[in-house]
Design brief:
Layout lengths: L12 H5 L12 H7 L9 H12 L7 H13 L6 H19 L1
């Protein structure tokens, strides 16, 4: 089974907030344009506010681009080996954590 990892067309959060050549931040889509309306103001949704809160809770949650590239190459070349035992252990730990929250 071959897997292909490619960049999606949706820009990352950092790309959406980077200034354009004109010095203003780019809009992330038609919804933001509709929200701006004729007065040019944009209202941030509760979901966006929650996302900002989560991002501030995990400031060091970054990824290693080199590691991602290495894994992408390994998958493409058929060299990537999944450690089923480690996946199963983490899945069980996650399920245990979720069930203990509800109790």
């Amino acid at each position: 089974m071959a897997m292909k990892i490619t960049r999606t067309s949706e820009p990352t959060r950092a790309e959406r907030t980077q200034p354009t050549a004109g010095g203003t931040a780019r809009s992330s889509g038609a919804a933001a344009q509709r929200a701006a309306g004729s007065n040019g103001r944009v209202q941030i949704s509760d979901l966006s506010n929650r996302l900002n809160q989560l991002e501030s809770q995990f400031p060091d949650a970054s990824f290693d681009a080199n590691k991602v590239s290495e894994i992408r190459s390994a998958i493409a070349e058929g060299r990537y080996q999944v450690n089923a035992g480690a996946v199963a252990d983490k899945l069980l730990a996650s399920a245990e954590q979720l069930t203990s929250r509800k109790a």
